[in-house]
Design brief:
74 residues, alpha+beta, 3-stranded antiparallel β-sheet, 1 helix, 59% strand
């Protein structure tokens, strides 16, 4: 049986370092931005995240894109 994969959308996940915990390790907070178009290029998604987070005081720890795909049996 074949499976058909249909791209739905993506989620942009940006993690920032918001300080240090009691042991001196970095505290990381993640923000999620839903409904990123599946046909948006990775470079464009990255550029938007960098532009948004350049407006805040916390340094960006990581930028991730999670693609959501609908799988159905043919």
């Amino acid at each position: 049986m074949a499976v058909i994969a249909t791209p739905l959308n993506s989620v942009l996940v940006v993690a920032c370092e918001v300080g240090l915990d009691e042991h001196g390790l970095p505290k990381i907070r993640q923000r999620y931005f839903n409904n990123v178009r599946s046909n948006a290029s990775d470079q464009d998604v990255y550029d938007v995240a960098v532009a948004l987070y350049s407006l805040q005081e916390y340094p960006v720890y990581s930028i991730r894109r999670d693609n959501r795909i609908d799988l159905i049996e043919e």
